[in-house]
Design goal:
Helix content: over 70%
Number of helices: 2
Oligomer: single chain
Distance between the termini: 26 Å
Length: 50
């Protein structure tokens, strides 16, 4: 149970950091946006095979 709670807190923090980077703009934000889209596409492809 504790592992799930820690995972929830850590993932929430990561999302906050990524959103903050996107809000600052610039090349770092462009790279982050590209990375996020790539991750979602990969996750969707993996989910479709299961």
């Amino acid at each position: 149970m504790l592992n799930w709670m820690v995972l929830a807190l850590e993932s929430n923090r990561v999302i906050g950091l990524r959103i903050a980077k996107l809000m600052r703009g610039g090349k770092a934000a462009q790279r982050e946006a590209h990375r996020m889209v790539s991750e979602k596409m990969l996750a969707a492809a993996k989910a479709s095979t299961t």
